[in-house]
């Protein structure tokens, strides 16, 4: 079935450092790709999305480009802040277990220090 | 603020006890979902409801039951809790007409804050 693989965390950075969180996927067809973020004590919320190849999703300084040739959707930010500390989930719309659904990666914890 | 509300936020149960997690949304969404989140495993779908009056099994439905009481409310019940059900549970909703149709690419889920359940 379809799946998502994220880099293992935690990722620890100093404030203003460059962030990359890797995400690769396996899917039949043409999935849409998402990044969700979970701040401490809260539920997940959509950060950005891309619906077709070469699309770039962006929000709050974060960006990710849908790369079909490398089946990747890496999350990047040029200068992280302490407030970006959270768990980041890559996800795709896919077919698994006999039905269409939103498939999540395991999550990557980011810790940003002053 | 509009959104998804879950109760309770924390619960401790003994093995064999039963309980119900409540979820309500005020966004007039048709579809609602229950996920569980376990370390290193991301989110796994337990049950979903494409619309009022319908429910379907997800990836890990064993040991759970659900009720879509009305358009706003979707509850998750553990009839006889087991330690393997210790987890954080998230309710979510979306505006898609059919929960099984994600191919439009427009599907976005709104999540509740989560319910942490411990089964001893």
- Unreliable residue stretches of chain B: 97-106
Q: Mean pLDDT across all residues of chain A, rounded? A: 90
Helix content of chain B: under 10%
Largest sheet of chain B: 7 strands, mixed
Main beta sheet of chain A = 6 strands, mixed
- Total DSSP helices of chain B: 0
Strand fraction band of chain B?
over 45%
Describe it.
Chain A has strands at 3-6, 11-14, 19-21, 23-26, 33-38, 44-50, 56-59, 62-65, 75-77, 86-96, 99-104, 108-113. Chain A has 114 residues and is mainly β. The radius of gyration of chain A is 14 Å and the shape is globular. The mean pLDDT of chain A is 90. With 120 residues, chain B is an all-beta fold. In chain B, strands 2, 4, 5, 6, 9, 10 and 11 form a 7-stranded mixed beta sheet that branches. In chain B, strands 1-3-8-7 form a 4-stranded antiparallel beta sheet, with no helix packed on it. Chain A binds chain B through residues 4, 29, 32, 34, 41-46, 49, 51-52, 89, 93-94, 96-97, 99-102, 104-107, and chain B through 4, 40-43, 45, 48, 56, 58-59, 90, 92, 100-114.
Describe the structure using short key phrases:
heterodimer; A: 114 residues; mainly beta; 4-stranded antiparallel sheet; globular; B: 120 residues; 7-stranded mixed sheet
Give the SSE layout.
The complex is a heterodimer of chains A (114) and B (120).
Chain A: E1 3-6, E2 11-14, E3 19-21, E4 23-26, E5 33-38, E6 44-50, E7 56-59, E8 62-65, E9 75-77, E10 86-96, E11 99-104, E12 108-113
Parallel strand pairs in A: 2-12
Antiparallel strand pairs in A: 1-4, 3-9, 5-6, 5-10, 7-8, 8-9, 10-11, 10-12
Chain B: E1 4-7, E2 10-13, E3 19-25, E4 31-38, E5 42-49, E6 56-57, E7 65-68, E8 74-78, E9 87-94, E10 110-111, E11 115-119
Parallel strand pairs in B: 2-11
Antiparallel strand pairs in B: 1-3, 3-8, 4-5, 4-9, 5-6, 7-8, 9-10, 9-11
């Amino acid at each position: 079935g379809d799946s998502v693989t994220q880099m293992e965390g935690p990722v620890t950075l100093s404030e203003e450092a460059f962030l990359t969180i890797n995400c690769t996927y396996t899917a039949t067809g043409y999935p849409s790709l998402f990044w969700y973020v979970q701040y401490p004590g809260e539920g997940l919320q959509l950060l950005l999305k891309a619906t077709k190849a070469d699309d770039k999703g962006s929000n709050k300084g974060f960006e990710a480009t849908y790369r079909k040739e490398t089946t990747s959707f890496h999350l990047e930010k040029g200068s992280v802040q302490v407030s970006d500390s959270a768990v980041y989930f890559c996800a795709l719309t896919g077919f698994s277990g006999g039905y269409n659904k939103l498939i999540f990666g395991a999550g990557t914890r980011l810790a940003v220090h002053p | 603020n509009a959104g998804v509300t879950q109760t309770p936020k924390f619960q401790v149960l003994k093995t064999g006890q039963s309980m119900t997690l409540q979820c309500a949304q005020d966004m007039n969404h048709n579809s609602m979902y229950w996920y569980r989140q376990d370390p290193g495993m991301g989110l796994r779908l337990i049950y979903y409801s494409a619309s009022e009056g319908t429910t379907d099994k997800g990836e890990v439905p064993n040991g759970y039951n659900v009720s879509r009481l009305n358009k706003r409310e979707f509850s998750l019940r553990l009839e006889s809790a087991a330690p393997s059900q210790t987890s954080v549970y998230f309710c979510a909703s979306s505006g898609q007409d059919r929960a099984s149709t994600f191919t439009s690419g427009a599907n976005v889920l709104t999540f509740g804050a989560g319910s942490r359940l411990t089964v001893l």
